[in-house]
Amino acid sequence: MPKFVICFAQAHLNFRLAELRSLAIIENVTLDFDQKDLLEQSPFLVVGIDTVENAKKLLNRAILIKEIIQLWAADDTLEGILLKAKNLPAEYFAPYRTSSFKFDISVFGSTLAIPDQVEQINRFKFLPLEGKIDLKKPEIVFTVYQDFYANANPKDIPDKPVRLFFGPFLATSNRGLIQTYDLKKRDYLGTTSMDAELSLIMSNIALARPGSFVLDPFVGTGSFLLTSSHFGAFTLGADIDGRQIRGKGNNKNIESNAVQYDLTNRILGTVVCDIAHHPWRETEFWDAIVCDPPYGVRAGAKKIAVNPKSLPKTSVLNPDGTYKLPQTIPYELDDVLTDLLSFAAKYLTPGGRLVYWLPTVTETYDPKDVPRHKRMRMIDNCEQDFGKWARRLIVMEKLQQHEPDLDLDALLVEIEKGIQGVNALDEQDMRVGDDGLVTLIDNPAHAKFRNHYFNIGEGETQ
């Protein structure tokens, strides 16, 4: 299988493999790589892909991938690269023999002066290339990646690169979408609006694509509706707080955002309801659920219920004849997540994904805190670290109808920073409810996250 080098953006490092695997599913591309080869301090990953065309497909909508080259030679010295390039079969260069070209020396973790780059490029003059050098619009670019960070202490960067890659440049991704959906340019937003880069990444991980139906049950100002619909999905949002949906007046609302981005044909609308009391027909309909449940800090969750401190009057009408809104009570995060998981297990299509944020306190986090369900397989657990607290992007996939319920061992597989490991847990510690919910710990840390957050007294949250 041909080898390629993916160059990632050095942003949201724990999310890179989750997005890459999701892009491969969306584009129907088979990947062959060892996830341990992607080092946190380096942007490069060598991947096997069957064709150049399929390699380019991965960049159609990638956010965390910057670019990709075909790998012709890899070594830990430039001399080794030159030797391997000299011994490459002639057919490697045949398609480019008469093409205009240029060389690009791309250095990560250090700098290389222009004269030194020119000197290195001139050392490739033995290559059988007959075309003209064109620095502005070449037909082919030959790239040399030089990585100073791989296996190195960032405080002690070596004088020479520790690994190099050489090959023809294939394509760049469309990270410009981050600017397109930048919050600063958005017609309507609020204090809990998710930033554009993470919204786009989450929509990719949720496998949002043409023809799919995506629900955000805590829609707020609709960030996930925009990015999922951008990728072709039909989206619909729900929220118990109708004020967020209706907006601030002056026609600034979710609908105006849909108009701004020309997505009115895909954003189907919004509904005022909570995840436990909703109008959806009981059928497996949604292909993905993408959301950021309220943590109780910037915005607290509520659900429809009778407030015992203020019992409702018998009349359902206001004095002016309009219907009264139902009463609501506080909705603890632990209960929110329990209902969310039960909803996903019932209403997602087989193979559908639940993608949501889980806040955690770094010091007390335990993988057993993550809510589980016997019909939902854990796919990824990606941490965004804020120091004393973090939020984790939890990615779960509903089992196919023919698949049996997850057994104990499968339920205990947690994915931490892209590396799978099984956490020891006695079977007696696990309880499975009638609805399929699995309890691994009686008092998960996120149950009282609001109190924990204000006790640590720092960070940024919803």
Q: Evaluate the radius of gyration.
A: 26 Å
Uncertain ranges: 414-427, 458-462
Alpha plus pi helix count: 12
Helix content: 10-25%
Strand content: 25-35%
User: How many individual β-strands?
Assistant: 22
Structural class: alpha+beta
Oligomeric form: single chain
- By CATH reckoning, the class of the largest domain would read Alpha Beta
The count of domains is: 2
Mean pLDDT: 87
Between the first and last Cα atoms, what is the distance in angstroms? 45 Å
Per the CATH scheme, the topology name of the largest domain is: Rossmann fold
Please name the fourth-level CATH homologous superfamily of the largest domain: Vaccinia Virus protein VP39
By CATH, the architecture of the largest domain is named 3-Layer(aba) Sandwich
Enzyme class: transferase
Family: Belongs to the class I-like SAM-binding methyltransferase superfamily. TRM11 methyltransferase family.
Main location: cytoplasm
Subcellular location: Cytoplasm
3D structure, described in words:
It holds the Pfam family UPF0020. This is tRNA (guanine(10)-N(2))-methyltransferase. Keywords: Cytoplasm, Methyltransferase, RNA-binding, S-adenosyl-L-methionine, Transferase, tRNA processing, tRNA-binding. The chain folds into two domains: 173 residues, 2-Layer Sandwich (VC0802-like), CATH 3.30.2130.30; 250 residues, 3-Layer(aba) Sandwich (Rossmann fold), CATH 3.40.50. It has twelve helices and 22 strands. Strands 1, 2, 3, 4, 5, 6, 7 and 8 form an eight-stranded mixed beta sheet that branches. Strands 11-10-9-12-15-18-17 form a seven-stranded mixed beta sheet. Strands 16-22-21 form a three-stranded antiparallel beta sheet. Helix 1 crosses helix 6. The relative contact order is 0.10. The C terminus is likely disordered.
